[in-house]
Design brief:
about 110 residues, mainly alpha, about 60% helix
Length: about 110
């Protein structure tokens, strides 16, 4: 195992440590979890609250792990699909409202 020193307190630490056991300073970023629970949460966020799914999606895409990158790619894809469906649904609702409003205005103009 490689040894190095904590940049804050100079205690010898192993290169696999994420935090210094002496001063608790961060030595390197901890990888993001790819557990099933986290994946489900990220995918639900991406599908149900579309714009917010981009944040974890991009975070996971920037990781070194292939599994984390896959989680990020799925999250971004779900977010894009969800945004497209939301825009399509909103457009349909607005068009139906406009049609009903126009038909009401035409009926009122006849009388």
């Amino acid at each position: 195992m490689d040894h190095s020193a904590c940049p804050s307190c100079n205690l010898p630490v192993l290169s696999v440590f994420y935090f210094c056991p002496n001063c608790a300073k961060s030595l390197r970023p901890k990888p993001l979890s790819t557990s099933i629970g986290n994946q489900i949460g990220i995918y639900l966020l991406s599908a149900l609250v579309p714009p917010f799914g981009l944040v974890p999606g991009i975070k996971y895409l920037l990781q070194k792990s292939g599994k984390a990158k896959a989680v990020g790619a799925v999250a971004v894809l779900l977010t894009i699909i969800s945004i497209a469906l939301t825009v399509q649904f909103a457009t349909n609702v607005i068009n139906q409202f406009n049609q009903q409003l126009n038909s009401q205005l035409q009926i009122n103009q006849l009388f």
